[in-house]
Write a structure and sequence with these properties.
The protein has about 220 residues and is mostly helical. Helices cover about 75% and strands about 5% of the residues. A two-stranded antiparallel ribbon has the order 1-2. Strand 1 and strand 2 (about 170) form a beta hairpin. Helix 3 runs antiparallel to helix 4 (about 95-125) and helix 4 (about 95-125) packs antiparallel against helix 5. This is Opsin 3. One of its GO terms (cellular component) is membrane.
Length: about 220
């Protein structure tokens, strides 16, 4: 474990970042988000399972988003909520790693599923194509594997999960000056840019191909 991270995790007990009233407000906000997030996402999953007419490939992508958001409400918000109540990070370094990993994993899953959902809408409208369940299951599998690959790398030593500046939760070490850590952050961000750039270029090319027909 990096000694700098351990000392950073240890200094949180020495001072508070926010005023007492701010911590109380954050407790209410995060607690409300957690309760509504849990109830609403659980309801989506239950409705999908109960009503057969809702079991469509597109709805399955929405269920995947609800599942990842539900996991955040169950395993992600609790540590931050308790820290807001206490006014500081009150958990161990191992818990910090778990908090950073679980929130990052579910966050990437939600973002990538939204990208897949946007692509599904695009091919439905532009190409009049409808995705089937095998396509959606493959997409979901790839999304989780992609997310696990990026969030698992810090567990193996490429970057790390550390206490954030507000000292209420943990995330990647975005401020590290180490070249390897900086390379991870850069490649991580470029991964998002690549996906959206491909969608933009494909859209641009298709519009260009349709121009002669429009004239």
């Amino acid at each position: 474990m990096n000694p700098a991270n351990e000392s950073r995790a240890g200094r949180h007990e020495e001072r508070s970042v926010f005023a007492v009233g701010t911590y109380k407000l954050l407790t209410v906000i995060i607690g409300t988000i957690g309760v509504f997030g849990f109830c609403n996402n659980l309801l989506v999953i239950l409705l999908y399972c109960k009503f057969k007419r809702l079991r469509t490939p597109t709805s399955l992508l929405l269920v995947n988003i609800s599942l990842s958001d539900l996991l955040v409400s169950v395993v992600g918000i609790n540590f931050t909520l308790a820290s807001c109540v206490k006014g500081r990070w009150m958990w161990s370094q191992a818990t910090c790693v778990w908090d950073g990993f679980s929130n990052s994993l579910c966050g990437i899953v939600s973002i990538m599923t939204l990208a897949a959902l946007a692509y599904e809408r695009y091919i439905r409208v532009v190409h009049a194509q409808v995705v089937d369940f095998p396509w959606v299951w493959r997409a979901i599998g790839h999304i989780w594997l992609y997310s696990l690959a990026w969030t698992g790398a810090p567990l193996l030593g490429w970057n790390r999960y550390t206490l954030e500046i507000h000292q209420l939760g943990c995330s990647l070490d975005w401020a590290s000056k180490d070249p390897n850590d900086a390379a991870f952050i850069l490649l991580f961000l470029l991964g998002y840019v690549e996906h959206f750039l491909k969608l933009f270029l494909n859209r641009f090319q298709e519009q260009k191909d349709l121009e002669p027909f429009g004239d």
